[in-house]
Write a structure and sequence with these properties.
Layout (H helix, E strand, L loop, with lengths): L12 H7 L5 E3 L2 E7 L2 H18 L4 E5 L2 E6 L9 H19 L2
Antiparallel strand pairs: 1-2, 2-4, 3-4
Length: 103
């Protein structure tokens, strides 16, 4: 997925990219997703996220709370959500589909 970033046009390309990622929401300077999966699926998903995040040099926040897996992608500079965070979100969606289809 490719999107234009920056202020080249008046459109919000981040919002356009997020429409392709159901369940992901933008909240201030982060994007996030909550998933209802069991503990073994959480463990498998977390491992897959770690591999992709390391390759992209990003540090997502993944935590388990009350049967839910919460994922937050916050830009390293704390300022602007980049193509990297959106790419990681897309890869997480792929991993989520893989983990939940293994049932």
């Amino acid at each position: 997925m490719r999107a234009l970033w920056g202020s080249r046009a008046s459109r919000d390309y981040l919002s356009d990219a997020l429409t392709l990622l159901p369940g992901w929401t933008r909240e201030g300077r982060q994007i996030k997703r909550t998933l209802v999966i069991d503990d073994s699926q959480h463990a498998a998903l977390t491992e897959r996220i770690k591999v992709v995040a390391d390759a992209l040099h990003l540090q997502p926040e993944v935590r388990r709370l009350d049967g839910h897996t919460q994922i937050r992608l916050i830009p390293r500079d704390g300022e602007t959500i980049t193509e990297g965070e959106v790419t990681l979100a897309a890869r997480i969606e792929d991993a989520y589909r893989t983990v939940t289809s293994d049932v």
